[in-house]
Amino acid sequence: MNKQIYIMKMSQEDCNYMTVQELQLQYFQKELLDELNGFYFYLGEINNSIEINSEFYFLYQNKIIAKANLIGIINSSKLANIENIKIDKSFFDNKINIYLLDTKTIQIFEPINIDKFYEYITYEKGKEAWINMINKPIRGGAKKVEIDNNMYKELADLTKKPIELEDSLYKSRLYNNIFKRYFEEENLLNLTGLYYFENIHTYFLSNLLDINKNKIMGFCENNKYLPLIYLLKIIFNKTKKLKILENTKISDLTVKSQVKIGEKSIADLIIELKLNNKKYIVLLESKILSTENINQCKKYYDIINQKYDDTYEKIFVFLALTDNNQLSNNDEEINKKFIQITHQELLDNLYYKCYIETYNHTIYEYMQSFNYIIDKLLEEHYPIHSIPITKTLEEISEEIYYQYKDYLINEILKRRRVTNNEIIYIIRLLICIHNKVLNKKKDKELCEMIENFCKEEFFRYKNQSKRI
């Protein structure tokens, strides 16, 4: 008796013009794991002859690329009124079935082309179904074919051949369509090249902290002080005074940016407030691509102490890319008076938390601007660990690293297959992995390899770009 199987055609339109490998790595390993109570599923035309436990072979771009066992069938119209189902409800009608697949049986393998697979079909109706499947532009139409038992064993052996992952980092949808696209999202700061000007970042922080202005970023009466509390947590955590924020009561808040505090001195940010009935003055100096001017912090320290009496708790903050390389004052006592925080700390513990609180697109776009600082900082010879990384990029890079870490180490760092068109994205990815994955793992050797690779390849890329 012949073995009966079904061929499920996947159209180019449904799969968003993915390559075969993208479809195998992303679609069958990620996107099919649904939204539908943890089952893998596939939407397709109704075929009443399909039986439970049938084998599905998936056809894409004239190749068999994956297989799985069917464990259930649901008519999509029955799910149309269920709110938590995230499948596109335009498909929910009587003509479409949801085919549930057994997650344990899903296999991806070296694609089997049409001619090769054709050899396994053993009777005329099977060949006819095969030809109709190829020529008819149907969506997800399952067609039954029969295969001789002996040939089925050969086919089973063929589908056990693992796919090669040597191109997966560059070509997988995870990399090209998520990581790369994240850098291609433009906003006003990026388009105008203003993202590395310090004043821009100070103004944004000022508006976020100011309770009279942060309404346009999604804050309301109930949570208007949250941005300030997030900032104070960062500051007081450095000084081990977090208890100050217990039972927090804030009043008399004023926030000003670019404040003239002396004849030739302009402070980036001045915050005055009452915290639990005690008066505070916070001076914040921000740096992106520059370092402290000569005696700049000492001047600020002296001016604030002259202007505000002892009834004020005075806090001096130096905001920079790293916490040890941009406060250059030779006066150690003054240096100790300034609490050093980094833009990465603000990204993680202020901006990202504000975004989660409000899901405000302005905050998201602002965080995006930090992505473009990566290239600028590399160009300015900053070490890659100075570069702020957004939470989204951290999550994407972690996922890529844990899936393709062997490939990263064995292929990229040995400079195989790294073309000039890809190198800038590879550098960005490696920087994210370096800063947000390897530092946690304390892998100093690989960190050093990545630092050298990024430095050499970025300047090679820049030099080649200038010659074109």
SSE blueprint and pairings:
Layout: E1 3-9, H1 20-31, E2 40-45, E3 55-60, E4 63-75, E5 96-101, E6 107-113, H2 114-118, H3 124-135, E7 142-147, H4 149-158, H5 168-171, H6 173-184, H7 188-192, H8 198-209, H9 226-238, E8 250-260, E9 266-275, E10 278-286, H10 296-307, E11 312-320, H11 332-337, E12 338-342, H12 343-358, H13 361-369, H14 373-379, H15 391-412, H16 420-441, H17 444-467
Helix pairs in contact: 6-15, 9-12, 12-13, 15-16, 16-17
Describe the fold and architecture.
The strands form 2 sheets. Strands 1, 2, 3, 4, 5, 6 and 7 form a 7-stranded mixed β-sheet that branches. Strands 8-9-10-11-12 form a 5-stranded mixed β-sheet, with helices on both faces. About 2% of the residues have low confidence. Helix 6 packs across helix 15, helix 12 packs antiparallel against helix 13 and helix 16 packs antiparallel against helix 17. The chain has 468 residues and is of the alpha+beta class. The chain has 17 helices and 12 strands. The chain folds into 3 domains: 161 residues, Roll (ph1033 like fold), CATH 3.10.590; 89 residues, no CATH class; 169 residues, no CATH class.
